[in-house]
Amino acid sequence: MELKRVVIYSKDIELITGKSGRYARKIMARMRKELGKEKHQLISLGEFCAYTGLPEHEVLAHLCGYTR
Known about the structure:
Blueprint: E1 7-8, H1 10-17, H2 21-35, E2 43-44, H3 45-52, H4 56-64
């Protein structure tokens, strides 16, 4: 399977980390602040991986298991 999108959402962060939705939204807010993004701007998968230090191939493999 191949992930057909570049953007990561809070639900994805919940699935990857096993944490709550509130935690995922806080992480996204922190990332936007540190990256100098506005509230409406999206977070890419690459930006998420760089921020968390998680290998992109592992995150992709995990997310592909949840997408159809």
